Amino acid sequence: TLARHDSLYGDAEKVSGDRRHGSGVSDQIIHHLAFQSIGVVYGDLGTSPLYTYSGTFPGGIRHPDDILGVLSLILYTLILLPLLKYVFIVLYANDNGDGGTFALYSLISRYAKIRMIPNQQAEDASVSNYSIPEPSSQTRRAQWVKQRLESSKAARIALFTVTILGTSMVMGDGSLTPAISVLSAVSGIREKAPNLTQLQVVWISVAILFLLFSVQRFGTDKVGYSFAPIILVWFVLIAGIGAYNLAAHDATVLRALNPMYIVDYFRRNGKQAWLSLGGVVLCTTGTEAMFADLGHFNIKAIQLSFSFIIFPSVALCYMGQASYLHKFPQDVADTFYKSIPAAMFWPTFIVAILAAIIASQAMLSGAFAILSKALSLGCFPRVQVVHTSKKYAGQVYIPEINFLVGAASIVVTLAFQTTTNIGNAYGICVVMVFSITTHLMTVVMLLVWKKNIAFIAAFYVVFGATEMLYLTSILSKFAEGGYLPFCFSLVLMALMATWHYVHVCRYWYELDRIVPAAKLAALLGRPDVRRVPGVGLLYSELVQGVPPVFPRLVDKMPSVHAVFVFMSIKNLPIPRVAAAERFIFRRVGPAEHRMFRCVARYGYTDQIEAAKDFSDSLLDGLKLFVHEEAAFSCSQHTDDNDGDGALRAAQAAAAEEEKRFIDAELERGVVYLTGEADVVAAPGSSLIKRIVVNYVYTFLRKNLSESHKALAIPKDQLLKVGITYEI
């Protein structure tokens, strides 16, 4: 018998020249990207001097040398976490140029089968961006880790839980960043208008926040890179103000470069010093954005901009504030604005407002991008993801999430009213994301990088212990605002876990009930079933087999389109899939049935094309498959005699006829069919399962899920088939 040509294997071997973003670029481009990154990445980190000292000393400064201890803590925290950990280690754990918590999980899932949906296919490893090296004798420890992860359901669940916790915390960050940044910046107006009450300042901040969230639908691309000059001006201003304060007040604070002042600070203040760490860590807010926004730039650009512009400017600003506080410790509640020279107040105030808005914008864009990636895990309902930029795939807008995050940000501002209380909540988000990144990075080092065990242990101990120290400090303020991100994250995690659990159960339900070949032939052979003109695309989560919704369709409407494709959208654990590698096909049943299985593969930063472009690309791919199938069959024969030549000619003619038939049916129209499944808990299920499946999941599906919009299917070409799954 002839070996079957199957593009589920053949097409996947065509490797395109898709290169990672930022690889092999010139120094000029790197410098250009470094400048652009200033506006997109560092707004949050750059506005942290607005509130760090007030968050560290909520009760005032007790001892003059406490300023030196805290300045030393701030400087060495900036060196240890943003500079050493992120800039020189974590950035290298990117997933083909993309970063963030989700990228780390995707990187791990590519090296070990830890995902709970069994849709891994060997041919996916041949996609250009997949890039898994062959095992070698030096990978025994990595193989051991891989086996442990794959064989332990608890480990797989733990990794997934950590990932969605990180995603939830970033979403919390997205609601707290606008609140604390805008409120801190607006509070400065009381320097010139002391009659304004705190409540009035809060309402001004709410108005700015409302405007900020209202314009999200226009996307960051409209104003994105105009941000860089504003933020650059901000960094020049804060560095200049810092240098002025050092010269005008007390340059001896530079002694804080000696870490012994940290030891003295803890010896002198004990528990109070430990509690103040929750304020110190606010100097690192926005650090995760360096990794999350890496896909827009590259490693060298981020390293250059942070090392030579951001770090020196922010450090100089903190030194200048410490110099001012050494002379005027009573002004610690509003250090930043009090330390500004009178002539520079209004320009600095205006730029501070703009910088706060930009910081909020960057964090929101990152939150949208991360959640859009989480959709490909199957752990969030299909919601409308609007790509606001044709040039940058990571710039997206999700209307439902924008409303929820915006409402949360305004409620937080109205409820807490001061940056100190918001800072308690904010610090937990920041440190939790740091800790999650450290744990996932440790797995990457073991499984992917295969580093020396001493290096891995040093990384985990140094950064893990530091972050744990900060986390225990900030958790002590749980009742003073710290509970907020936990509540927010628990709700979001519960929704994501519920959706993912039912999604996995539904996949297994369909997989266990796929239609066998004999039943499919019997269905098509029924006298009441007729083939109707056009192309039918039946969407299913399954990447193999005929889904159980197909017999339901035939029973309700005994007709099948002349060309019928069982369509699956599959998300690979890589950022992008090249267009040439998008579709893979196989034939279902004999050739005369003209039924096919197609898997459309997307990376987590890819967007699904519009319906017309999608169907045109799919049918072009199908015709190429038909052509290659005939060529493959011909190659199985030798041309020793005329009979074989005649067979090849007949096969080629049949392939051309089938391609013409597909073109003709495409002209008659494309109909998209989807299964509208009501998922209910099976009889005898536990009470918790019935609540999760029958109520929580059903509520989410009916109120958030719009699969035809997410899949870019026009309503006038959509046909839904109702079916009930008991899981």
Automatic annotation (TrEMBL):
Residues of the K+ potassium transporter C-terminal domain: 533-727
Pfam families cross-referenced by the UniProt entry: K_trans (PF02705), K_trans_C (PF22776)
Topology of this chain in the membrane: Multi-pass membrane protein
Superkingdom, natural source: Eukaryota
Gene Ontology terms for molecular function: potassium ion transmembrane transporter activity
Coiled-coil ranges (or none): none
Main location: membrane
Start and end residues of each stretch annotated as Disordered: 1-23
Protein localization: Membrane
Membrane-spanning segments: 67-93, 196-215, 227-247, 273-292, 304-324, 344-371, 392-416, 422-446, 453-471, 483-502
Bias (Basic and acidic residues) ranges: 1-21
GO cellular component, one term: membrane
Domain K+ potassium transporter integral membrane intervals: 33-520
Keywords: Ion transport, Membrane, Potassium, Potassium transport, Transmembrane, Transmembrane helix, Transport
Entry annotated with the keyword Ion transport: yes
Function: Potassium transporter.
Family per record: Belongs to the HAK/KUP transporter (TC 2.A.72.3) family.
Name of the protein in its database record: Potassium transporter
Organism: Aegilops tauschii subsp. strangulata (Goatgrass)
